[in-house]
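Budget justification aside, the reviewers requested a transparent look at the raw inputs and outputs of the sequence design task funded under Objective 1. We therefore reproduce one unedited record. The lines immediately below are the structure tokens for a 487-residue chain.
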């Protein structure tokens, strides 16, 4: 919530621009659900520059009209009353604010960059709406355009103090957090207060502040504030495509707010490429050269493909691992054992399997609790990983039991490794509650398929042999290694 001191500065700031009479009237019309076409035309016609912009808008590729508008009434007829009001409001606000000089102390603030980003956000917001087939494209454009107006407000009401904060980071989210920590109010809240002061329609102002919060429930569908939120990151990427991390941040925001995948993002960027020239012409600015835009689209496709592959790999990794310990899961173990067994049989190669059971582990959970038990399990897995080779496969077989596959390893060759592994587990001293230490031992059963041997015809037989050896180790007093061949 904006504090009283800041609210007072906002209300009495002499450097804040005064909106022109036409803009004020357009805001009144935007808040009037019964505004008629005659009144709209009358007030827009009072501003020749605004009238010319609206005519160009009605005739631009953005609205794909088959008719050519030659006067304001025809433009309103083509676009519709609501669209004309919102578009006129976009132009009026931007025109009056862009002409307002900033205080001399605003040394690190570049108003040209600010407005290029704002216009790009508006374009991105509209493009998202087109991809999602939303009906309120012009509301999206306006909200995208003014969503960061609080940054401009901060520069106008407290330039020297804000200069230090603004120059401390180039990341939007970090800037917002720093504002909240040092000033007590983020530019989202200050922007909302300014938009309310100007009587901007409440649903537009609310979408701007809500877009800086957390994503809303997806059952609401693609909302105005969700599109505004994603447009911010889309504009950042579009303007700075070569900066590390921009695409990663964008794909996360697109997924979290709108559940858009990478393919959909490519379509959105393509829409931005197609409509960029029209928007640049309407705002008499330059954001990217056409060749740069085409390059951005090409690079975006490549980056999004890389992200898709990385995401697939990440999901695959998660599906193969135990969430608690980081060891592979039972499904992955079964598949790996089957593959390695038949490779060993086909090429006459050795293969060793070890079953590892942590002794009396139930006592750990009963005495210290499951949180301590879970932490100890993770520590054990980390310890085992430090002892085994990269080609070996460690899996959590169930509870406190683990299975280890040692490809290309004979029984005799496995002895040193498994002995070191057991000793390493014994040496674990897990510190609990800062003053209690938990120690654990392990019983291990080992079985091998040694190339020419014909003991095992199926992988399950090898696994059962190792399991039988494990139970023999437990029955023999635990904390020891038993080999199946010795039974």
């Amino acid at each position: 919530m904006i504090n009283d001191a800041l609210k007072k500065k906002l209300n009495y700031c002499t450097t804040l621009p005064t909106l022109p009479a036409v803009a004020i009237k357009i805001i009144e019309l935007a808040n009037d659900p019964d505004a008629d076409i005659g009144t709209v035309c009358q007030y827009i016609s009072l501003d020749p520059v605004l009238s010319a912009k609206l005519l160009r808008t009605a005739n631009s590729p953005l609205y794909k009209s088959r008719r050519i508008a030659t006067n304001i009434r025809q433009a309103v007829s083509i676009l519709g009353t609501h669209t004309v009001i919102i578009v006129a409001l976009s132009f009026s606000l931007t025109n009056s604010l862009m002409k307002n000089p900033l205080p001399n102390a605003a040394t690190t603030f570049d108003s040209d960059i600010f407005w290029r980003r704002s216009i790009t956000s508006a374009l991105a917001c509209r493009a998202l709406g087109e991809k999602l087939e939303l009906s309120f494209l012009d509301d999206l454009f306006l909200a995208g355009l003014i969503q960061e107006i609080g940054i401009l407000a901060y520069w106008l009401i407290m330039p020297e103090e804000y200069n230090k904060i603004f120059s401390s980071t180039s990341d939007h989210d970090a800037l917002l957090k720093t504002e909240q920590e040092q000033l007590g109010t983020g530019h989202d809240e200050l922007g909302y207060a300014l938009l309310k002061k100007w009587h901007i329609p409440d649903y537009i102002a609310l979408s701007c502040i809500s877009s800086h919060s957390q994503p809303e429930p997806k059952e609401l569908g693609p909302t105005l504030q969700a599109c505004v939120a994603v447009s911010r990151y889309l504009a950042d990427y579009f303007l700075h495509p070569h900066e590390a991390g921009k695409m990663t941040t964008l794909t996360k925001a697109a997924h979290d707010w709108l559940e858009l995948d990478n393919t959909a993002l490519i379509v959105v960027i393509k829409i931005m490429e197609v409509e960029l020239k029209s928007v640049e012409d309407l705002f008499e600015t330059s954001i990217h050269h056409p060749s740069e835009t085409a390059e951005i689209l090409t690079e975006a496709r490549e980056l999004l493909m890389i992200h898709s592959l990385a995401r697939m790999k990440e999901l695959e990794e998660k599906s193969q691992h135990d969430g608690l310990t980081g060891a592979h899961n039972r499904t992955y173990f079964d598949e790996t054992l089957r593959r390695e067994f038949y490779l060993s049989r086909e090429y006459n190669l050795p293969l060793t399997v070890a079953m590892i059971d942590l002794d009396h582990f139930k006592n750990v959970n009963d005495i210290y609790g499951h949180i301590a038990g879970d932490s100890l399990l993770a520590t054990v897995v980390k310890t085992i990983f430090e002892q085994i080779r990269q080609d070996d496969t460690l899996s959590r077989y169930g509870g406190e039991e683990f299975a280890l596959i040692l490809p290309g390893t004979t029984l005799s060759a496995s002895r040193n490794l498994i002995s070191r592994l057991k000793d390493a587990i014994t040496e674990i001293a897990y510190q609990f509650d800062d003053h209690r230490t938990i120690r654990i031992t392990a019983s291990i059963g080992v079985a091998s398929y040694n190339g020419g041997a014909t003991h095992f015809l199926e992988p399950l037989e090898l696994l059962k042999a190792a399991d039988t050896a494990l139970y023999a180790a437990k029955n023999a007093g635990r904390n020891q290694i038993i080999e199946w061949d010795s039974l």
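Strands lie at 350-358, 393-398, 401-407, 430-432, 436-438, 442-450, 481-483. The first helix runs from residue 4 to 12. Computational costs for records of this kind are itemized in the attached budget.
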